[in-house]
């Protein structure tokens, strides 16, 4: 089971990382059943804690606790070396966005991409290279 962020295709990633996610039981079940909305999702470091913002997980319809976190703020699990690396990238004006969410064993993991957004001419060049590679042109 893997959910992919289509917005990540517009970025040039210089580095990628895998982080664990802090989820409630209802969130984990909802991820298995409903999926996730990545629209506008990004990773920020708030008070030294990496958080993913604007990640919408639809509520699980059978959960007893209907008060779910709708803000889309969820904590990411990284070690101190990885957090320091993320902070140094953030100081260099790099964007950190979630690329995908996947299951590893019984745990949900998030792949984080660190890079810059591509400009229009860079996107065109990328598409042209892919078409040449496939033999369309």
Taking the sheet with the most strands, its summary is: 7 strands, antiparallel
CATH topology: Small Protein B, Chain: A
Number of DSSP E strands: 9
Measured distance between first and last alpha carbons: 35 Å
Structural class: alpha+beta
Mean pLDDT equals 84
Total tally of structural domains: 1
Can you put this structure into words, describing what you see?
With 137 residues, the protein is an alpha+beta fold. The protein has one domain: Beta Barrel (Small Protein B, Chain: A). The chain contains 3 helices and 9 strands, in the order ββαβββββαββα. It has helices at 25-33, 80-91, 120-134; strands at residues 2-4, 11-21, 36-37, 42-46, 49-53, 56-57, 74-77, 95-104, 107-117. The strands form 2 sheets. It has a 7-stranded antiparallel β-sheet with strand order 1-8-9-2-7-5-4, covered by helices on one side. A two-stranded antiparallel ribbon has the order 3-6. β8 and β9 form a beta hairpin. The longest helix is centred in the last third of the chain and has 15 residues, at 120-134.
What is the element layout, followed by pairings?
Layout: E1 2-4, E2 11-21, H1 25-33, E3 36-37, E4 42-46, E5 49-53, E6 56-57, E7 74-77, H2 80-91, E8 95-104, E9 107-117, H3 120-134
Antiparallel strand pairs: 1-8, 2-7, 2-9, 3-6, 4-5, 5-7, 8-9
């Amino acid at each position: 089971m893997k959910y992919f962020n289509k917005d990540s295709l517009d970025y040039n990633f210089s580095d990628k990382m895998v982080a664990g996610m802090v989820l409630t039981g209802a969130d984990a079940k909802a991820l298995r059943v409903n999926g996730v909305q990545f629209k506008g999702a990004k990773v920020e470091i708030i008070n030294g804690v990496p958080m993913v913002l604007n990640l919408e997980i639809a509520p699980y319809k059978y959960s007893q606790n209907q008060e779910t976190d709708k803000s889309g703020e969820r904590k990411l699990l990284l070690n101190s070396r990885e957090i320091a690396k993320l902070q140094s990238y953030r100081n260099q004006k790099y964007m950190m966005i979630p690329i995908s969410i996947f299951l590893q064993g019984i745990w949900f993991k998030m792949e984080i991409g660190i890079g810059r957004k591509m400009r229009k001419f860079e996107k065109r060049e990328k598409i042209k290279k892919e078409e040449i590679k496939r033999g369309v042109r």
